[in-house]
């Protein structure tokens, strides 16, 4: 919320995101009720066959945006924890002279890499990881 503020995010949620989610979830529910075999993947099976590639592109973009949010959040939270004295001081590199929030902390980058590698090794397959998310 730091980049936009509470009001624009609340407006976007109620005007755009909530109606889209409700429409999608009700559509998936109706599809599964009408055809129980579609329970394996209702999101992609809800769309017509010509829309499969655009949906895969949309899903890929959403994944990239979400991963970028995790990375940015990790750097921001680490900076705040350092400023509050919760963790020891680390080398912080400011990557922009204009934007104060654009920072790079090498230790955080390494910690994220180790965490991702441990997740990949621990779950062993994308199916096991999907099961952890309830997909």
UniProtKB/TrEMBL annotation:
InterPro entries, per the entry: K+_transporter (IPR003855), K_trans_N (IPR053951)
GO molecular function, one term: potassium ion transmembrane transporter activity
Gene Ontology CC annotations of this record: membrane
Membrane-spanning segments: 50-82, 103-123
UniProt keyword terms in alphabetical order: Membrane, Transmembrane, Transmembrane helix
Entry keyword annotation includes Hydrolase: no
Domain K+ potassium transporter integral membrane: 1-135
Family membership noted in the UniProt record: Belongs to the HAK/KUP transporter (TC 2.A.72) family.
Protein name stated in the entry: Putative potassium transport system protein kup
């Amino acid at each position: 919320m730091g980049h936009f503020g509470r009001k624009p995010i609340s407006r976007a949620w109620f005007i755009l995101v909530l109606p889209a989610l409700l429409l999608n979830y009700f559509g998936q529910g109706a599809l599964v009720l009408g055809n129980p075999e579609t329970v394996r993947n209702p999101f992609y099976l809800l769309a017509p066959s010509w829309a499969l590639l655009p949906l895969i592109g949309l899903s890929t973009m959403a994944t990239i945006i979400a991963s970028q949010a995790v990375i940015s959040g990790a750097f921001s939270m680490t900076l705040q924890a350092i400023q509050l004295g919760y963790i020891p001081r680390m080398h912080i590199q400011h990557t922009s002279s204009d934007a104060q929030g654009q920072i790079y902390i090498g230790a955080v980058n390494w910690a994220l890499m180790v965490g991702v590698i441990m997740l990949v090794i621990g779950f062993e397959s994308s199916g096991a990881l999907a099961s952890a998310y309830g997909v």
